Amino acid sequence: MLSIFFAVSPNAVGQQAEATYLTTMSLVPQKLRVERDSIKFLITGKLPAGSGLLTKQPNLRLRLLSNRDTLDLGTIPVQNQAGIAIVTKNIAFSYMSWMEDARLVLDFSLGKNKAPVESKVLAKGVHAPQLLVRLGNYLPGEAIPPVGRFDFSNTIKESKPLTKSVSFKFEPGKSDWVAFPENQEAQRQLTIFLEQNPELISLKITGLQSPEQAEGRNSQLGYLRAERVGQKLLEFFPGISTDQINYQSRWNDWFDFRILLADYPGLPGETKSRYYEELQGEGTYFEKGLRIKALPEFERLAAALYPKLRSAKVELTARPYFGLGKQKGRLLKEALAPAGVNKLSYSDWELAAGSAPSLDEKAMLFASMIKWFGSPESFINLAVVRMRQGQELQDEESKAVLWEEAARLLAEANRLKLLPLGLYNQGQLKVLQGEFWEAYKILSEASVLAKGDASLMVAIESLRGALDVRRGDYKLALLRFGYPMESAEDWFNKGIASYILGDYLGANLAFEASVLANRELGYGYYGLALVAMELGQAESGSLYLEKALTYQPALRQKIAVDPAFSQFDF
User: Fold this and answer.
1) Nearest-angstrom CA–CA distance, 350 and 347
2) Helices and strands (H, E) in the chain, number of each type
3) In sequence order, what DSSP letters do the residues of 321-376 get, joined into one string?
4) Which of 121, 179, 524, 539 holds its CA 20 to 30 A away from the CA of 456?
5) CATH of 20-127, one of 2.30.30.100, 3.40.50.10300, 2.60.40.10, 1.10.1740.10
6) Would you call 139 helix, strand, or coil by DSSP?
7) Coil, strand, or helix at residue 506?
8) Which residues of 477-512 are buried (b: 16+ CB within 10 A; e: fewer)?
9) How far, in Å, CA of 184 to CA of 187, rounded?
10) CA–CA separation, 425 vs 431, rounded Å?
């Protein structure tokens, strides 16, 4: 009997050591999720019976652990119900951003203040789709969305560079300047172009030579032609400097002939195709020349195109000086001088500021408009610039300084005249600063004043709808999104509201509309993946996530911690 007892005893002890206390512990719901601004769940289960467990005063402690912070959720009481250790407790706590990738861990110990003998991870990550709503926020590595709206009396486009191409003609085999009518016309076209676009960006002159015998004797002929045209342009346009000109040339090359051939109307399509086949085929420059001379209509074609290759091609890229022509651009420079005098109208300044390509240049011009005109619109526009400049910064202190300046500018604009656009921008600024309820109240006031301005009403309602999603009022958000939408961000926000309400058909339609409006945003695909996972379509969900990452790689960090996608390894 003793031998049998000692034979089985080690096994019995081994089984006791391997027994798990937390096997039945679970959460309702199974995943942590944010409701409004809190995380709520029920922890439930029971401890294994026997071995006098209840007399050992078992201790359960719940913790939320992240690489960034920790939250001790305290002990979980154990109740004795007919000798069974029952665990049940409702937990609720405020959500904070560091909890996004946290783990919910339950520790079991045999007695208070004793080391845990077992731990169990009950949940990983927090499902918070409402925090994805687009409010002007962005992830690291994501394109920065523009916030705020400028107050312009007319539609103004950013001043973008334009390119003008002309050719100057030369006599066969020569690089001397001749005032041909064609050359005078090319000069006139450049004059008009530079009057409208005085800010020179680049100037390239390419000297060409035709395949004629007189043209091919000197390999430097094309370059000499380019230099000669450059000298004349410096003479014609004193504002151009020598270091702005890039000289090039081509010799024994059919490239420019092929370009002219494309626009030549005197050949049937089939014959033109034969020329292209020969010119793009194998062989040297001279071999190709011999082959095309044997083709139909060559003499007529050469007579039409060869003279055009005795030339120098000018490609001039320039843009308006802040949207203004040469004369008004000069007046703008005078007004911007320290002791300058303004001779431009408000609309001229508005055009210049609206056309300025950078925020720093816009800020300079809007600040001058405040100086010269002091209108509420000028204060509003400078505030929008400060909002966007702050949004681009990672340093929180510098960002706060710019946003505080924007707040002062908007307050002054409202003092001068209470405009709905000023209130809208003020609401958007409050959103950026995280003051959502203050933003909501201001936007509500703006909506009253903006009646009749359809475009502004859409902007106000879309921002209010996004705030409704963040606040947890999803049905009201859907009412806000009842207008005809064009923005991919607005469609995505509507989809999130429908998704949280369990309307997966409506959510799917909204996310698809977001993709159609702008697939590069990436968020529409993320939303489609959320719906697919709820419907048990994991394969489709995986494909949607891959597309989301194709267009928006910054979403990878969200996918990695969202428990909706816990079965994938992204």
Assistant:
1) 5
2) 22, 14
3) BTTB-HHHHHHHHHHHSTT----S-HHHHHHHHHH-SSHHHHHHHHHHHHHHT--H
4) 524
5) 2.60.40.10
6) coil
7) helix
8) bbebbeeebebbbbbbbbbbbbbbeebbebbbbbbb
9) 5
10) 10
The CA-atom distances, in angstroms, between 64 and each of 67, 109, 431 are: 10, 17, 28
pLDDT tens, the chain, 570 aa long: 344 434 433 333 333 334 488 889 999 999 999 998 899 999 999 888 665 666 677 889 999 999 999 999 999 988 887 777 889 999 999 999 999 999 999 999 887 788 888 999 999 999 999 999 999 989 888 989 999 999 988 777 777 889 999 999 999 999 999 999 999 999 999 999 999 899 899 999 999 999 998 898 889 999 999 999 999 999 999 989 999 999 999 999 999 999 999 999 989 989 999 999 999 999 999 999 999 999 999 999 999 999 999 999 999 999 888 888 889 999 999 999 988 999 999 999 999 999 888 999 999 999 999 999 999 999 999 999 999 999 999 899 999 999 999 999 999 999 999 999 999 999 999 999 999 999 999 999 999 999 889 999 999 999 999 999 999 999 999 999 988 888 999 999 999 999 999 999 999 999 999 999 999 999 999 999 999 999 999 999 999 999 999 999 999 999 999 999 998 886
CATH number corresponding to 162-319: 3.30.1330.60
Find where tokens 């009842």 sit.
482
| Assigned architecture for domain 374-565 | Alpha Horseshoe (1.25)
Report the distance separating Cα 361 and Cα 382, nearest Å. Answer: 11
Task: Tell me how far apart the alpha carbons of residues 276 and 211 are, in angstroms, rounded to a whole number.
Answer: 16
The per-residue DSSP string of 64-92 comes to: EE-SS-EEEEEEE-EEEETTEEEEEEEEE
Structure pTM? 0.76
Tokens matching residue 326: 């040469």
Rounded to whole angstroms, the Cα distance separating 332 from 301 reads 51
* H helix or E strand, kind and range, residue 411: helix 396-416
Residues constituting the chain: 570
CA distances from 195 to 243, 324, 337 (A): 21, 9, 22
In angstroms, the CA 409 to CA 375 distance is 11
Tell me how far apart the alpha carbons of residues 204 and 317 are, in angstroms, rounded to a whole number. Answer: 9
Cα Dmax for the chain: 126
Pairing of strands 118-124, 103-109: antiparallel
Q: In the chain, what are the domain boundaries?
A: 20-127, 162-319, 374-565
Q: Nearest 5°: phi and psi at 318? A: -155, 175
| Intra-chain end-to-end CA distance of the chain, in Å | 59
**Both tokens of residue 268?**
């049937």
**Phi, psi dihedrals of residue 451, rounded to the nearest 5°:** -60, 130
Give the separation between CA 35 and CA 20, rounded to whole angstroms. Answer: 32
The pair phi, psi for residue 205, each rounded to 5°, is -120, 120
Alpha helices by DSSP H, 142-220: 181-196, 213-216
